[in-house]
Amino acid sequence: MATTLFRTAPAARAALRASSIKTGAAALTTSFTRGKATLPDLSYDYGALEPYISGKIMELHHKGHHQAYVNGLNTALETIEEAKAKGDFSQAAAAAPLLNFNGGGHKNHTLFWENLAPNNKGGGGEPAGALKSAIDKDFGSFGTLQTQINTALAGIQGSGWAWLVKDKSVGTLQVITKPNQDPVTGNFIPLLGIDAWEHAYYLQYQNRKAEYFKAIWNVINWDTVAKRLSQA
Question: Phi and psi (nearest 5°) for 66?
Answer without folding.
Answer: -65, -40
